[in-house]
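It is worth pausing here to work through a concrete case rather than discussing structure prediction in the abstract. The textbook approach is simple: state the sequence, then state the predicted structure, then interpret. We follow exactly that order.
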Amino acid sequence: MLKKVSFFCLLAVFAYSANAVAQSNDAMIASIAKYNDNVNADIAAEKLFSHRVTLNTESSKTRLWGKISKYQENLTCYFEVRDGLTILKKIIILSDIADRQSYTDMLFDESGNPALVFYTNNLKNASSANDRYMYSNRKLIYFSTTKNTELGAVTDSYDESNFETKQINDGLEMMTKAENYKKMFDAIAKVQMSQF
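Step two, the predicted structure:
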């Protein structure tokens, strides 16, 4: 009898803790979404500084970029200056790659870590997927992909309880990409701010 009671108590504790983790992730996802909305509002209200950078400006010529006949990235970095420090909020990247155009939106938390990466592989194709990766403390906590179909938008979403290996690997790749773009921004900001 004591073993059954202990088993059910242990099961109840496990169920409670799983529910608490799920609620915690839901709260974190909602917090990231709200923070993203606030940053977007600051961008629209022109409250943030911005730098625009074009990579591979000669893409329209016949030069090959690796194996690609056309490749160009247009980046806009949005940031604020607080107490002499530059704090990156968001990087938006519009890339022309051969015959397609991709869009990437990278949101950074107050510590400079990626919080959200939104990626569309091909803006010219209405049925192209829109992928969303959310992070907390450099850990993937949520992934969703939305595809437009004849019946409307279809979204599949995943969290830590049901991630697949591909989603984790893609999430890590996107986080690394965001961190590398942040390093580029930090280098530019360091040169710029050293004058003041």
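Step three, interpretation. The longest strand covers residues 85-97. Residues 26-193 form one domain.
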